[in-house]
Structures are given as C-alpha cells and as structure tokens.
C-alpha cells in the first residue's frame, strides 16, 4: 500500500481534529430505548429519533419476525425485477392511506427518497428554491438535479417571495423544505409557503422526516397539523415509525413517473419484506396512538420548561427536537462528554450538520422517558451549563 495515501488522509483528518470537528463511533449494546448500554455502560439516551418507542415495540417486532420466517431476510432484487412482494405493495397502500394521497412509493430510506425525487423531477430550465436549513439529503438531491438551486433564508417568507419574484422566467419553480427541521425542531410555515406557491405558480415538496407520526391528530405529520396538501410529500420510516425505509406520497401520476425515472428507486435492491411488515404494523399503532403522542407532548413540555427554568433560552417548538445551542464546537463536545459522565448520552452536533458557531447538543425526548430521567437531564444541564458558562 502506498504510504503517502494514508498520510494524505491522516492530514485531512488532523485538520478536522484541529477545528474540533473530529467524529467517532459509539456502540450500542442493547435495544433502542430511553436506557441503552453504550460502549459497555448504561446511559439514558436523549438523542434518539425513536420518538414513540416503536423501534422496540413487541407488536412491531413480531410482525417483522413472522414475515422474516416466511419471506427470508433479503428481498433479492430491485422492485422492478424480483424484489417486489405483497408486503411492499401493502405498505405503499398503507402509507398512501396514512398520508391521504392517491399513491405512495417506497425507497430504501429517506436519504434516497429525497435524492430520487430531486434528481428526477425538476428539469433543466427549472428552479429549486431550498430552505437554508434543509437536510443534507435534500441538498445532495439538488446537487444532482439539472435545475438551478437557489437557497432562501431559513423559514423566511419575505426572502422566499423575493426569490419567487426574481425567478418568474424559469420554466417551473419548486419550493423544497423540511416539515420539521431536523437540527432545530422548528416547523416550516407550510400554510404560508403554500399560499406563496399558489400566487407564483410554484410546486411544493415537503420532507416530513420528523413530523411523521408526531404532529397532527392522527400523527400524519406537519401537513395534517397545518392542513395543507403539497404536491410531493417525502418521509422516512426510520424516525417515529421506528423501522427503516423512505417514501414519497402524492398523485398516481407522480408515483408512476418516479417508478420510471427515479434512479434511486430503479437501481436499488428493495427493502426486506419483513421490514415492510413491521412498518405496516407500526403505522397501525401510530394512527391509534393518541396516548403515545400525548405522553410525548408532556415530556417535550417538561424538558423545555425544565431547561428554561434553569436559565437556558429555549425556542419552544412543540416537537421532540430540543436544541441546546452552545456555539463553540469544542465546548459542545465538552458539554456532551460531561453529560456522558453523568450518565446521559447526547452527542454534540457540529458543522457542517449545523451552521458555524451554532454547535449544539440536539436533545431529543421520547414518549418513553420518565419524569425522573427528564429531571436527571435538567439537573445535569444546570451543573454543566454553569461550569462551562453556557447559561447566561
Ligand atoms: C433523517 C432524515 C432524512 C433521511 O432519512 P433516512 O431514512 O434516515 O435516510 C431525510 N430528511 C430529513 C429531514 C431527516 O431528518
């Protein structure tokens, strides 16, 4: 092996280390839940996306294991060859019903759903207007598109309207946004965005990875919560739904188009049928999961209230994503290490995941956390916040 190859890479990683941006892996040695064995020690987890606890739900696990015994563990091909089973079809029907659209299409995950839509749907001559805080998979999808991408300021309707006015010559305009922003937990003003889209004849694409299962009377997501029907609804089954897979929901024409043109759909082995069965079961639990969502809301409120009381300025977004902005990357890492020493697992989130100077602990709370666990988190944040002069 060429030594200079490894040297070159080592230098590049060293640069990251110098900026406080070095990342390492942690190993979970037990099932997902509020308490997890991390690297051999039991920790209370305040950073998982398993908001409703469904990733370890017995009903969901049983559905997966039954179908795994019947259908095997791998799907053996892409959907258009040998990888299409009744469980894929059933789940797509279920998702369409859940999102109240004509049809839906499964992808292997949300990342690939975003890439598959954004790289195929907008054409050359079109413009994509993208929120500055959109998820990396939306950004990558825009990069692969032949359309021009223009970034508008985060949830800034004035800037968005300005950019809609400036792009009237484009063939088509697409506005693309997270429903719930993954690192800030705030909700996109979809009702106003839809109005602007109507006024300027633009199409709207919403990635509701974090709203799905959480927001709205039946947990259908941000669009149910704000009573809107965008042209394209993208989502993932890997957050509140607790399984794995991405999806697009919309008209029959949209889904038919994606089956024919979306490269991340066409050229990928389909999800295992057992995982699809698990998702079907999980969506069942979610639609009837008012109690789970109520428990979650109580916990969101308890964390936000607790942190506000001890002096943190919280945004209060009503979603399970509760960012504790630290600023400096080193300090955010230090904060996370000190939490770890106090039995709490919540890693630091740093650039490029968030903007420079906005490193944070992305606290997430789930329906399963107890009030004792939440109090332990708040007490730890008070001690550490004072020691690191984060609380002003
Ligand atoms: C997590 C996430 C995705 C990716 O979904 P996966 O199923 O994990 O690939 C896409 N968009 C947003 C906003 C996310 O938070």
TrEMBL record:
<keyword id="KW-0093">Biotin biosynthesis</keyword>
<keyword id="KW-0808">Transferase</keyword>
<dbReference type="InterPro" id="IPR050087">
    <property type="entry name" value="AON_synthase_class-II"/>
</dbReference>
<dbReference type="InterPro" id="IPR015421">
    <property type="entry name" value="PyrdxlP-dep_Trfase_major"/>
</dbReference>
<keyword id="KW-0663">Pyridoxal phosphate</keyword>
<dbReference type="InterPro" id="IPR004839">
    <property type="entry name" value="Aminotransferase_I/II_large"/>
</dbReference>
<comment type="function">
    <text>Catalyzes the decarboxylative condensation of pimeloyl-[acyl-carrier protein] and L-alanine to produce 8-amino-7-oxononanoate (AON), [acyl-carrier protein], and carbon dioxide.</text>
</comment>
<feature type="domain" description="Aminotransferase class I/classII large">
    <location>
        <begin position="42"/>
        <end position="380"/>
    </location>
</feature>
<dbReference type="InterPro" id="IPR015424">
    <property type="entry name" value="PyrdxlP-dep_Trfase"/>
</dbReference>
<dbReference type="GO" id="GO:0008710">
    <property type="term" value="F:8-amino-7-oxononanoate synthase activity"/>
</dbReference>
<comment type="pathway">
    <text>Cofactor biosynthesis; biotin biosynthesis.</text>
</comment>
<comment type="similarity">
    <text>Belongs to the class-II pyridoxal-phosphate-dependent aminotransferase family. BioF subfamily.</text>
</comment>
<protein>
    <recommendedName>
        <fullName>8-amino-7-ketopelargonate synthase</fullName>
        <ecNumber>2.3.1.47</ecNumber>
    </recommendedName>
</protein>
<dbReference type="InterPro" id="IPR004723">
    <property type="entry name" value="AONS_Archaea/Proteobacteria"/>
</dbReference>
<dbReference type="InterPro" id="IPR015422">
    <property type="entry name" value="PyrdxlP-dep_Trfase_small"/>
</dbReference>
<dbReference type="Pfam" id="PF00155">
    <property type="entry name" value="Aminotran_1_2"/>
</dbReference>
<comment type="subunit">
    <text>Homodimer.</text>
</comment>
<dbReference type="InterPro" id="IPR001917">
    <property type="entry name" value="Aminotrans_II_pyridoxalP_BS"/>
</dbReference>
<keyword id="KW-0012">Acyltransferase</keyword>
């Amino acid at each position: 092996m060429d030594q200079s190859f490894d040297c070159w890479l080592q230098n590049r990683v060293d640069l990251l280390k110098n900026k406080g941006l070095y990342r390492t892996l942690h190993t979970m040695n037990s099932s997902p839940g509020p308490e997890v064995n991390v690297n051999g020690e039991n920790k209370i987890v305040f950073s998982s996306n398993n908001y409703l606890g469904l990733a370890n739900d017995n009903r969901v696990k049983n559905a997966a294991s039954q179908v795994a015994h019947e259908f095997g563990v791998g799907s053996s091909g892409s959907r258009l060859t040998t990888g299409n089973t009744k469980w894929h079809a059933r789940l797509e029907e279920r998702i369409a019903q859940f999102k109240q659209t004509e049809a839906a299409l499964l992808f292997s995950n949300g990342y690939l759903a975003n890439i598959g839509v954004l790289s195929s749907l907008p054409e050359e001559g079109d413009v994509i207007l993208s929120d500055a805080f959109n998820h990396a998979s939306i950004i990558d999808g825009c990069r692969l598109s032949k359309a021009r991408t223009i970034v508008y300021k985060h949830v800034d309707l004035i800037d968005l309207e300005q950019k809609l006015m400036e792009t009237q010559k484009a063939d088509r305009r697409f506005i693309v946004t997270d429903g719930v922003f993954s690192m800030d937990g705030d909700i996109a003003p979809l009702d106003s965005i839809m109005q602007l889209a109507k006024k300027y004849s633009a199409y709207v694409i919403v990635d509701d990875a974090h709203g799905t299962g959480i927001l709205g009377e039946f947990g259908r997501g941000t669009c149910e919560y704000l009573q809107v029907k965008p042209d394209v609804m993208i989502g993932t089954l890997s957050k509140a739904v607790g399984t794995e897979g991405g999806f697009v929901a919309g008209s029959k024409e949209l889904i038919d188009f994606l089956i024919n043109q979306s490269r991340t759909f066409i050229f990928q082995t389909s999800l295992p049928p057992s995982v699809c069965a698990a998702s079907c079961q999980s969506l069942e639990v979610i639609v009837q999961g008012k109690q789970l969502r109520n428990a979650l809301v109580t916990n969101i409120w308890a964390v936000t209230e607790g942190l506000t009381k001890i002096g943190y300025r919280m945004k209060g977004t009503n979603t399970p994503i509760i960012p504790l902005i630290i600023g400096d990357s080193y300090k955010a890492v230090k904060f996370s290490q000190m939490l770890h020493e106090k039995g709490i697992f919540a890693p630091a989130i740093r650039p490029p995941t968030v903007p420079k100077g906005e490193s944070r602990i992305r606290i997430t709370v789930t329906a399963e956390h107890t009030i004792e666990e939440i109090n332990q988190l708040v007490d730890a944040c008070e001690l550490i916040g004072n020691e690191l002069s984060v609380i002003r």
